[in-house]
Predict the 3D structure of the following.
Amino acid sequence: MTDTSADTPAGDPAGPPPGAPAAEHPALAGRALEAGALTDAVRRLIGLCVTTTAPAVATMAAARALDVIADALERHVPDPLFPKTLMTDPGDGETDLAARMPFDFVIGRHNPLALPLDLTFEPPVALLRGAFTRPYEGPPDCVHGAVLAASFDIVFAAANFIAGLPGPTAKLEITYRRPTALYEPCLFEGRVEAREGRRVRTVGRLIQRDRVTVEAAGDFVLLDRADIARMAERARTGHGG
């Protein structure tokens, strides 16, 4: 995936400094509404790619038309790319992680691969809600296990963030109790269970139809503010991608 901005000249990777308002993602500056419309259209196309049975002629015509559109957009891809995520410090008061991560695979409002799932907080618990559609299918009429694992990784990261214990994933354990159905509301829960030194243990579950379908636990490596500041600076200057 490439993060682009038609209004930004190539070679200008500068973004906002750490702690800047979440709405100021540089790749969306001055075009957030239009970029959202493009994302919605592509998200619809993703669904159609796995459901349509259009005749061969219509299918090829659509592919060629989309290639023309892709060629036009490709001319506006900056080099180097903008950072995908705006690094943030949990001490800066910013809690809208979806705004900080507009291109995320799970909660990104501007990533057509994402539903996106809706992330909220009821401290100390992070909550993720949504109903998965056909592109996320694994077994017949059920959500793919890898998609569920990715969703837990995000809700755990959010739980760690609101606890002031951010850091990358070291291990993720998933226990599938029963199938998770497509098109049915899902509720992911995540909370920090323990901390030992720089290791953080976070646990959670997925509830659907008032039953637990998946349980998960993760180990994370705690980053201090200096670590986050260095990562943010690398991303801001185009060296963290």
